Amino acid sequence: MRKFSIGLLSTLCAFALAPAALAQSAGDSNGQTTARALAGHYRLAGVMETASQLQLEADGSYRWMLIVGSLDLYSEGTWTLAGGQVILGPHRFGKDRPVFALGASYPWGREEADAAYASDTTRLHNRAKWQCAFLASGGYYQSSDDYAVPEELTPLQRFEAAVESERELRAAYEKAIAAYFARDMSDPDDNLEISARSARRDWGRAVALLAKSARAAGKTARYQPPSLPADCFFLSDYTPEYAGNESGPRIDWTEGVGIWVKRRERPNAHLNIDAEFTFADGSRATANSHELGFAFVPAADERQLKAIKLTLRHDGSEYSSRFDVAPDRNARVFEVKLDRRVLIKPPFEQLRLDIDGDRLVPADGSGGAYIRRD
Fold this sequence. Notes:
With about 375 residues, the chain is α+β, with helices and mostly antiparallel strands. It is about 25% helix and about 30% strand.
């Protein structure tokens, strides 16, 4: 079995559900007796290459899992008894159940600094891809080669023609950029993006031609790239003079505090987990785990961390936990453990099982039967 499958198998015995409503009303003593008699641990038998377990609790809660091939399914919620059937569902992961736990803490080191740099660079790249999409690879409009310099000209004439061509195409590029940034962001039409990308390509060709003709004429090729917002620097293939030292994230990632979601295995790195850090001086800072599962805020050693609040929004629900942190100058990064069951899509709205003696038989005719094992 795969690692994740084994984790699901152990889940049935490793976690306890919060009390739920009884399967039968308090006024039906015979119903309560029957429900308690059915409570127990069941395993699916009679279906090849399929592992399934069911835990029915006397308080009306259940846990169910099934593994077949590469498919892992899990559900938990409340069960009822009606018409000679056990009815599982609907699936419900209790919002009052913590999905986070803090693991080991350790000092801020080289690995954390590298992860902070990578995390912020990825974030800024993604923001640039959204705001400056015309700088990324994509479709172009066909264009003519009118800006090409005729070969019959002298080297100096070709250089002068290349200077004029670069100037004209740069102006066209700036015009296309202005139209792109003035566009209606809610409009799905990407014509302005393609126009700006096409203008950028044509201007780039003119720059290359200018450089070539300058070398032939013994001249210096001078040109100034169009001005772009700072967010575009991470996609730009040149470094504008006004960019200064903008070669990486504009923050200090050499020291800080942070969280790392499942640091070593990182199976949930794609989750957007919000982290709020509260410091002893009362100040607060927020960050998001984004793509790398690592969230941090710059913070010098003298800023003592006091508490961490973690929030996950998933499938229309919000799960949040707050952890007080004991004073410790060396505790700068905390591993975060996440209960992955909250991420599993409910496999069914209801699952009906016919009661056949001490067996529970799927009413949908899928085969097999759940045999009591305790």
